[in-house]
Specification:
32% of the residues lie in helices and 16% in strands. The chain is α/β, with parallel strands linked by helices and 261 residues long. The strands form two sheets. The chain has a seven-stranded parallel beta sheet, sandwiched between helices. Helix 2 links the parallel strand 2 and strand 3. The structure holds 2-amino-2-deoxy-6-O-phosphono-alpha-D-glucopyranose.
């Protein structure tokens, strides 16, 4: 696992957008896994700016969703499908056909989960998966004690996650669904490159447990330690509880430039 400490969220967004641009230069039809939440927005902004400046061609790129609420009506503005279309697919000028996501409105949720795992595999697998992290260490919507081998499935949100996400629902927790579909941790680990971005002091404990704690289902993001190509990008505030922060700074400062992220 590589840990890169950046000055602030904007610098983190720029760094990850450049890694995505590099990937698309090598593989123009790459499948990019995207996360929702506030944290990855600087990544999408920086990537959109590169596209508008002609620095990268995303016209053949494909986008895959990480998770979804269950039971929101189709087209609900806070469904993750609507969110990803608004924040990623439209700004990048991609067609909605270039977009894969689980069906949160399906009557047979289990079948929808299995269908999504199959669709990801048939699309050749995710090349680069962007991840945020919950304050309790969740990735996607894999709450604590999710199996580290889990596949895409339905999960019940913790009260804390519903409180955290109420800000997207007029601050009203009653509007936040209890159930979600999320790529499992086993599914996420199949992506070729995992890039987790965490910013702000509120993520410092979760980041320390992810990077320096044991691999444990209690901290779902710690499963990144099992992946051969995982990058954790954190700002100074989110890095503030890392014991090895100086070591991470040193290794990144001395990294051969050809290596990229
Ligand atoms: C939700 C999403 C996660 C995201 C997390 C953190 O739970 N399912 O993918 O990482 O929120 O969101 P934020 O970046 O807004 O803190």
């Amino acid at each position: 696992m590589e840990v890169v400490i950046v000055q602030d969220a904007k610098a983190g967004g720029e760094l990850i957008a450049e890694a995505i641009a590099d990937l698309l230069r090598r593989k123009p039809d790459a499948l990019l896994g995207v996360a929702t939440g506030s944290t990855p927005l600087p990544v999408y902004d920086a990537l959109t700016a590169k596209v508008r400046a002609g620095a990268v061609d995303v016209s053949r790129a494909r986008i895959a969703q990480l998770d979804e609420y269950v039971g929101l009506p189709a087209g609900h503005p806070e469904s993750y499908r609507s969110t990803v279309l608004r924040q990623v697919v439209e700004p990048l000028g991609l067609s909605p056909d270039a977009f894969l996501g689980p069906d949160g409105t399906a009557e047979d949720v289990q079948a929808a989960c299995e269908a999504y795992d199959r669709a990801l595999a048939e699309a050749g697998g995710v090349d680069l998966q962007i991840l945020g992290i919950g304050t309790d260490g969740h990735i996607g919507f894999n709450e604590p004690c999710s199996s580290l081998a889990s596949r895409t499935r339905i999960k019940t949100l913790t009260e804390q996650t519903r409180i955290d996400n109420a800000r997207f629902f007029d601050g009203d927790i009653d509007q936040v669904p209890h159930h979600v579909i999320t790529q499992g941790i086993g599914t996420i680990l199949e992506a070729r490159h995992l890039v987790l971005l965490a910013t702000g002091e509120g993520k410092a404990d979760a980041v320390a447990a992810t990077v320096e704690g044991p691999v444990a289902a209690l901290v779902p993001a710690s499963a990144l330690q099992l992946h051969p190509h995982a990058t954790v990008v954190v700002d100074e505030a989110a890095a503030s509880k890392l014991k090895l922060a100086d070591y991470f700074r040193h290794t990144y400062a001395n990294k051969p430039s050809w290596q990229g992220l």
